[in-house]
Structure formats: C-alpha cells, structure tokens
C-alpha cells in the first residue's frame, strides 16, 4: 500500500506544471562594430574555438553580418572539432529544434552528451531531460538522475528540484525524505517556488536530527560530484 507521503508528492505534481527545457540554446547576442567583427573573424581563422562559436552566433542572429544559419553551423562544427563544448551544445540545440538541419533528436543527444562529458552545465541538464523523457535515447530514470546529480552539485536549482522530487518519490533511486528536503531547500534558497512548496509539505515529517544528517550527506555528495568534474 502506498504511503501518504508519496501520495502528497504525486498530488503536487498533478497541481504544478513540470519543468521544461524548451528555452533557447542561445544567450542574447549584441551587435558588434565592424572592427570587432573583423577581430572575431581573424581569431576564428587562427583556430580560436571561442571565437568560432561567437562568429557562429553572429551569423545565427544576423548581428553585424547577414543572417546565415548554414554559416553558423559551419563555424560551430569547426569549433566542435577543436573540442569546444559550447559548440556541441549549439549544434545539439539546432538538431533538437530542426533549425538549418533536419530535426534529429538522436544527433542532438550525441552533441549534448559530448558537451556534457566536457563539463558544460547546460548540456548536463539536457542529458538529464533527454534520459528522463526518452528523447533521442531510451528512457532511463537512473541515468537521468545521474546527470541531475552532476548539475545539482554545481548549484543548478532546477536540477536540485528534480533530484529532490526523485528522492521523495523513489524515482530511479531509493526514497529518502530527509535528503529530498535537503536538496529542495537548496533550490528554494535560489528562488525556486515549487521547491519551497514541496519542502514545506515534507519538512514536518522529518526530525531535526535526520535533516541535519541529510544536509551533511548532501554536502558530501556535492564534494564527491565536483571532484569528478
């Protein structure tokens, strides 16, 4: 028989929208002067991977150059070949959305995976989401949770929220309410309102001693994850 606690969490999940990672893969890109663009082009020509990505961004948005997604892809691919994680993340976004290329979630996953393994936080979140939903890869809650753990250890509030829910529900991991509260309160401190709601629902069920131990365990988990980065 299901305990009252998971029922509370499931009810909350039905009451609040799930987090989506549909936000744009690009930051706001400001227009540069001709001299600045020439400098970026020169550095890109010299094989500077960051400049290659920046040039790709300029062509993607048409900032100071003609809007040309094909050109942006060319520069991202060159940067990717040089091992630039942000370029892989950009390419993953293009394949995920089908912009300038045929939509292909499997290819998007492969680019995100490459960027994630090179430590890019945003890509690690995409990996967690793709494994969670089975997008471009077979659904795997445990692998999803592994990536959420990495991102949570780096302080990503959304990852901390997802990890807290997984621990509360026992999704891909053994249920642990004290640790769930410890992760949710971290996300809540960063302004996550949903995390605060869940934390408040669970906190009364946890003794102060159990919560203190859970906080210590979470600190240990964070240090363990960061040491692997």
Automatic annotation (TrEMBL):
One Pfam family, short name: Sel1
Transmembrane parts of this sequence: none
Cleaved signal peptide residues: none
Lineage: superkingdom: Bacteria
Record's protein name: Localization factor PodJL
């Amino acid at each position: 028989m299901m305990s009252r606690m998971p029922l509370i969490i499931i009810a909350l999940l039905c009451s609040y929208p799930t987090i989506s990672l549909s936000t744009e893969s690009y930051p706001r890109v400001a227009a540069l002067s001709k001299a600045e663009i020439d400098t970026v082009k020169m550095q890109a020509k010299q094989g500077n991977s960051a400049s290659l990505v920046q040039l790709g961004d300029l062509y993607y948005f048409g900032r100071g150059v003609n809007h040309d997604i094909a050109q942006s892809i060319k520069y991202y691919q060159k940067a990717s070949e040089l091992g630039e994680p942000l370029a892989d993340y950009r390419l993953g976004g293009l394949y995920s959305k089908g912009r300038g290329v045929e939509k292909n979630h499997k290819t998007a996953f492969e680019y995100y995976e490459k960027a994630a393994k090179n430590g890019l936080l945003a890509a690690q979140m995409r990996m967690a989401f793709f494994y969670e939903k089975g997008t471009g890869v077979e659904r795997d809650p445990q692998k999803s949770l592994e990536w959420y753990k990495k991102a949570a250890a780096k302080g990503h509030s959304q990852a901390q929220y997802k990890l807290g829910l997984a621990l509360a529900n026992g999704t891909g991991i053994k249920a642990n309410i004290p640790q769930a509260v410890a992760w949710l309160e971290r996300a809540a401190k960063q302004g996550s309102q949903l995390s605060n709601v869940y934390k408040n629902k669970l906190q009364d069920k946890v003794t102060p001693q159990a919560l203190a131990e859970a906080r210590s365990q979470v600190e240990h988990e964070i240090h363990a994850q960061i040491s692997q980065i």
